[in-house]
Amino acid sequence: MTTDEVEDLNRARSALVRQRSAIAKRLGSIELAPVSMAEDLTRILLAIEVLDRALTDAGHLHLGAQV
């Protein structure tokens, strides 16, 4: 995998993480959240996991900002 491809995957992951945070914030503020919103969150979490696997397989383990 090229450096550009790895950067693209990292940018895609960052965008999904921002989306995950936005949905989680909305879910937390709603008394009775719609199931569709939980389904959206699930799809985003799965997509992040797939990107993490692709990065790991390419030898570029995503460690996050905490490290």
From TrEMBL:
It comes from the Bacteria. This is Uncharacterized protein.
